[in-house]
């Protein structure tokens, strides 16, 4: 049995259901590396992989850690330090730094392309995208990132009948067999066609249909939910390592770009990105808020200043930090800094108005 088959077998057994509760508690530690360690411990404890080879024990948990590190390194190569500075601290929509190195000033490419104008249109982050990265991985690592398809047919054993649901790759009901043999069934087949398998199960339960225990519909749904959970935890851990590896300024900024691209929690990079000595902290906060961040976020001050012998975190809300940043920017009396202060003030006021409107709406409902 190869690595992907072992993974699928594990997911089908539903063992993540109980382990998932452990996984949801992986964020109890404030230490980023501890969060990764907790995930690896859970992954190892789940006995997802393992076994022996001709040369000894085969540590799949270590390979998962290595894969997390690979993702972090890929993102560092895709967005090097200077690229991060250009995109966030200098508020550039697109950086030319890597484009010049990889394409424009690449003698090897210039010799290959007679028409050098072709190279000027290349964009490094788009060129070295996620699809390119996962296609470069071996199959046993690629399987964690390739979209998981639904089974083509799922059977429901109901009142001595076998009801067959034919699914698309995305889990949409295309055809249903034998439902007409249940005359008192509250839902017709035509009502279920075109619905997602999740919606079908919810509709059946809403209409009082008691599904058998361990039925294939629920199993297929749990299987995909578990897969998504595992994949998201892997990406979360990659984000933790991106933040930790990059250090007090570059790490959180690169982590924010990663979080936005992979639809992860953008609060986490901001939480760890408050460095009091950072002259461009206002730019970073602005990017976070523009991405939909919250001014009520509780952040760790100077997270990267901790030492092994002394670990103590001071907490502060982001709105308090913003007010401090705004005052410092205005004091410089530099036009660019004043403009940034105005932008932060406008966003802060806008967020406060949104919160007031939300409170009023909730009060009216009561």
Explain this structure to me?
With 366 residues, this protein is mainly alpha-helical. It folds into 3 domains: 140 residues, no CATH class; 60 residues, no CATH class; 96 residues, no CATH class. The chain has 17 helices and 7 strands. Strands 3-4-5 form a 3-stranded antiparallel sheet. A hairpin with a 2-residue loop joins β1 and β2. It is globular and about 80 Å long. The chain starts with a helix and ends with a helix. About 8% of the residues have low confidence.
Descriptive key words:
single chain; 366 residues; three-stranded antiparallel β-sheet
Topology:
Blueprint (H helix, E strand, L loop, with lengths): L2 H10 L3 H8 L8 H14 L6 E2 L2 E2 L2 H19 L2 H9 L7 H8 L2 H6 L11 H4 L2 H6 L3 H4 L10 E6 L2 E7 L5 E5 L11 H4 L4 H10 L9 H46 L5 H5 L9 H10 L7 E4 L12 E4 H15 L2 H31 L1
Antiparallel strand pairs: 1-2, 3-4, 4-5, 6-7
Please give the largest β-sheet.
3 strands, antiparallel
Rg (CA only)? 26 Å
Strand content: 5-15%
Number of domains: 3
Oligomer: single chain
Describe the structure concisely.
It contains 17 helices and seven strands.
């Amino acid at each position: 049995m190869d690595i992907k088959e072992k993974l699928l077998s594990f997911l089908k057994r539903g063992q993540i259901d109980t382990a998932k509760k452990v996984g949801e508690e992986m964020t109890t530690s404030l230490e980023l590396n501890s969060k990764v360690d907790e995930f690896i411990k859970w992954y190892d404890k789940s006995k997802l992989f393992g076994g022996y080879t001709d040369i000894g024990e085969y540590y799949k948990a270590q390979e998962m850690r290595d894969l997390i590190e690979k993702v972090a390194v890929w993102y560092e190569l895709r967005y090097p330090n200077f690229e991060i500075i250009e995109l966030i601290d200098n508020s550039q929509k697109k950086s030319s730094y890597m484009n010049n190195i990889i394409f424009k000033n690449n003698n090897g490419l210039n010799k290959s392309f007679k028409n050098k104008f072709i190279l000027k249109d290349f964009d490094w982050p788009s060129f070295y995208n996620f699809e390119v990265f996962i296609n470069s991985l071996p199959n046993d690592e690629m399987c964690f990132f390739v979209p998981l398809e639904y089974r083509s047919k799922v059977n429901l054993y109901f009142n001595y009948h076998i009801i067959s649901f034919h699914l698309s790759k995305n889990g949409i009901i295309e055809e249903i067999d034998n439902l007409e043999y249940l005359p008192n069934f509250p839902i017709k087949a035509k009502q279920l066609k075109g619905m997602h398998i999740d919606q079908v199960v919810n509709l059946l339960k809403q209409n009082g249909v008691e599904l058998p225990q361990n039925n294939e519909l629920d199993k297929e749904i749990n299987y995909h939910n578990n897969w998504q959970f595992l994949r998201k935890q892997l990406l979360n851990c990659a984000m933790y390592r991106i933040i930790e590896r990059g250090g007090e300024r570059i790490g959180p900024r690169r982590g924010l770009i990663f979080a936005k691209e992979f639809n992860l929690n953008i609060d986490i990079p901001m939480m760890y990105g408050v460095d009091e000595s950072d002259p461009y902290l206002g730019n970073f906060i602005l990017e976070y808020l523009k991405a939909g961040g919250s001014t009520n976020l509780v952040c760790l001050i100077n997270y990267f200043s901790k030492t092994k012998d002394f670990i103590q975190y001071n907490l502060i809300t982001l709105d308090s930090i913003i007010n401090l940043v705004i005052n410092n920017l205005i004091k410089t009396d530099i036009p660019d800094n004043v403009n940034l202060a105005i932008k932060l003030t406008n966003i802060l006021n806008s967020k406060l108005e949104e919160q007031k409107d939300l409170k009023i709406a909730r009060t009216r409902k009561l």
